[in-house]
Amino acid sequence: KWDKILESIRDDNELSNVAFKTWLLPLKVFRIEGNILKITAPFEQAATYVENKYKTFLYVAVAEAMGEEYEIRIITEDEALKEKPLEPETPKKAAAAPAPKVAEEQKTNLNPRYTFDTFVIGSNNRFAHAAALAVAESPGKEYNPLFLYGGVGLGKTHLMHSVAHYILQQDPTKKVLYVTSEVFTNELIDSIRNGNNNSMTAFREKYRNIDVLLIDDVQFIIGKESTQEEFFHTFNALHSANKQIIISSDRPPKDMETLEARLQSRFEWGLIADISSPDYETRMAILRKKEELDGYNIDDEVIRYIATNIKSNIRELEGALNKLVALSNLEKREINISMAEEVLKDIISPNQKREVTPQVILDVVAEHYGISVSDIIGGKRNAEIVTPRQVVMYLCREITDTPYKAIGILLGNRDHSTIINGDGKVRKQLQANDGSLKNNIDIIRKKLSS
Length: 450
Ligand code: ADP
Ligand code: MG
Hints:
Domain Chromosomal replication initiator DnaA C-terminal: 357-426
Bound molecules: adenosine-5'-diphosphate, magnesium ion
Number of helices: 23
Family: Belongs to the DnaA family.
Structural class: alpha/beta
Strand order of the largest sheet: 5-6-7-4-8
Strand content: 5-15%
Helix content: 55-70%
Region (Domain IV, binds dsDNA): 329-450
Subunit structure: Oligomerizes as a right-handed, spiral filament on DNA at oriC.
Keywords: ATP-binding, Cytoplasm, DNA replication, DNA-binding, Lipid-binding, Nucleotide-binding
Distance between the termini: 32 Å
């Protein structure tokens, strides 16, 4: 549980691995005293550093995970040794409060907050929500598998957990297993590594002897052959026994290019539902819901400010609100619009509202490859320049739908057949599975959309 909290801090704030390993991983929970959570750091400097830099994050993540706010105190391990033991009954009480939640969560490994009740329905997720609810009401009957896809932080995991909670609520004897595809892969690897039949049998029993299987972020098994193979058999075993399978991914099955074809077609057997970015009304509704769930009371103007400026990702939307609340608690400041502007200035970047035009693509690609725009437009023919140039052609087609001719004009009056060729070349390389090109393009796309 503590590890999960630390990981959520890393993920929500995109900490580097080094920072995470150096500062967060060594932190241990010492004890809870009333509403104070004491955490130890290995030595004095670490305690000070964490105190200055990560205390707000800890506060937010702990509140989120425990469903209750705790004041965070960071002490060194030496100081902890010197602390008086608590009165006999206090530690029991303190430990008893959060314990049931922890137990429940570990049992099903579901987030208790991710339920249908807390899920806000908007135009971006209406269909996915309806499909998920239908599946929850009659698992294994109608839509099998249910395949949910959409970008990061849009509610796939929340919806999957909601289905699992719902099914368990209707029938607690149902065996519901939720795993990420990474966990599935790791467990498979472990049982293969163990090298005996027992471990493989145990693995298969675990995954086949259930009523509902939820596999989150299935895109991570792309390219992992033995995992795909095993998952294929798991899928068949469950499906033919009318057991419900729910899969999430960041893209639809047809775009999972290097996924084994037979698995890809299985994913298309049931129902496919996408979740897209929330519109303004939905963003407002989500913020209001969170305000209500957490018992905050925040000025409408501030809520509107967040909803207007953070558009693409619900996790960021919530993160912004959490950050405001945490700071206002720590520094005893009132949340108002000027505080919001100040605190959220790193999250809300001015170019978030930037429209992606061919010119913007040109600038971002040049910057990404560390070359100049005039190089891209110019006549050089070395690979360091030609590849970025073709990437511009490709992205202009993909993102902006600009006609070849217009792209040619932008790129120093090149002929439209040159653009068709360049664009085609990138497509071919992507199809041929050029990992590094794909990676670069993914990063550029991210830069363009943020
Ligand atoms: P994904 O799995 O698609 O990356 P998550 O399910 O983890 O996204 O959602 C990110 C955060 O946004 C979670 O805290 C989740 O509760 C919240 N969230 C997403 N969609 C909704 C929604 N429709 N209503 C309320 N909260 C939502
Ligand atoms: Mg997820």
